[in-house]
Amino acid sequence: MPHLETFSTEGIAPQRRVDYWNELTGSVMTQLAVDPADWNAFSGRLTLADLGRVTIADVTSDPAAVQHSRQHVARSREPRFLLCLQLEGTCVHRQEGRETRVEYGDFTLFDSTRPYDVHIDERNRSLVFCIPHQELARRLGDTDAVAGVTLRGSGTVSGLTSRFLQNLWQHCLASPDTLLPPRLNDALLDLVASAYSEIQGISPSPATLAARRRQQIREYIETHLFDPDLTPARVAKGVRVSVRYLHQLFEEGEETAARYILRRRLEEASRALADPAQRGRSITDIALNHGFNDVSHFGRVFRERFGLTPGEFRRQSQRTTGG
Q1: Are 114 and 95 in contact (CB under 8 A)?
Q2: Residues near 189 by Cβ (< 8 Å), separated by ≥ 6?
Q3: CA torsion through residues 245, 73, 288, 36, sign
Q4: Using CA of residue 111, residue 117, residue 121, residue 124, what is the dihedral sign?
Q5: Are 32 and 67 in contact (CB under 8 A)?
Q6: Percent of the chain with pLDDT over 90
Q7: How far is CA 171 from CA 1, 132, 186, 190, 240, in A?
Q8: Residue 204, pLDDT score
């Protein structure tokens, strides 16, 4: 029977809410990191139902950036597919070079064995169906073709799937003590596989192939971001492309590969400087542990990026968080 459990940040101290939410969603779904738009006022609520092989989570949260990184992939215990069905608000889903804004009724299939991220720009509610990887993989065949793909709630088979999933959840909420037939899991999985079978066999366009390669490059950079010896040449060798092709892929964006690496290091260093839990670490330690060999260079490029020295940035962050 779909026994329901509800968890909420209500009653959790504000400075502990994000950590609590990350631990909760990581244990229920997959390892991830939430970066709220407002750390001081973030709130979230999750209602969970276990159907046997499939777990359903009704997730409501405030605006935030959600990331399932390469490091999270490595720490995840059980590979899963996460089918995220939008119920309220809109957000942006990204995986495997695919990016889609999702609205009510739309759903995206994320593969937890690959990085993905979600940008939530308003109060958001979604249903997340946590599915054992092998259960859906054997029904889908080519998982590369469906990872990160969004299907619209207005489609024929996808619309039927969306309505079925929503009705199933409403039944769970209305009758939590009703015994559901074991074969319901198979019906759910078969319907999801049928919806995605419509896109099987579609050859990716050159633009899609380039997007996938850029995503592979970004994943490699994220995995080795804090290695001080990380260079565009090292990245090109790591993903088995020429340095020239690497630069060509980045020419389509607004920054070079080297600038991208620098920006990401500075962003992560700024997170560490603003993190109350890391106030005991020196600026030198943070710089050296985020890929910078020269602390003076770190201070200079940090100021160019944020308009403040690392020390000023840390003090300002402490005042903002009340530390």
Answers
A1: yes
A2: 53, 54, 131, 135, 136, 139
A3: positive
A4: positive
A5: yes
A6: 59
A7: 11, 22, 17, 19, 50
A8: 47
Q: HEC profile for 88-148?
A: ECCEEEEECCEEEEECCCCEEEEECCCCEEEEECCCEEEEEEEEEHHHHHHHHCCHHHCCC
Read off the tokens for 184: 């319901």
Distance CA 66, CA 312 (A): 27
8 Å CB contact between 241 and 213: yes
Going by the DSSP 8-state scheme, the letter that residue 12 receives in this structure is S
Contact present, 69 and 103 (Cβ < 8 Å): no
CATH class of 206-320: mainly alpha
Q: Side chain identity at 288, as an amino acid letter?
A: L
Tokens of residue 263, six digits: 């920006």
> Which pair of tokens denotes residue 181?
């037939």
**DSSP characters for 229-288?**
T--HHHHHHHHT--HHHHHHHHHTSSS-HHHHHHHHHHHHHHHHHH-GGGTTS-HHHHHH
* Residue that has been written with the tokens 């089918």 in this structure: 83
Q: Which CATH architecture has domain 4-197?
A: Sandwich (2.60)
| pLDDT of 2 above 80 | no
- Among 89-98, 132-141, 157-166, the least confident range: 132-141
| Neighbour order of strands in the sheet with 64-68 | 33-36, 64-68, 116-120, 91-95, 98-102
Domain boundaries, the chain: 4-197, 206-320
pLDDT tens sequence across 278-305: 989 999 999 999 999 999 999 999 999 9
Q: Which amino acid is at 307?
A: G
Extract the tokens encoding 220: 């490699």
Let me know: does 151 contact 184? Beta carbons within 8 Å.
Answer: no
Contact between 295 and 284 under an 8 Å Cβ cutoff? The reply is yes
CA dihedral sign of residues 148, 152, 158, 161: positive
Q: What is the mean pLDDT of the chain?
A: 88
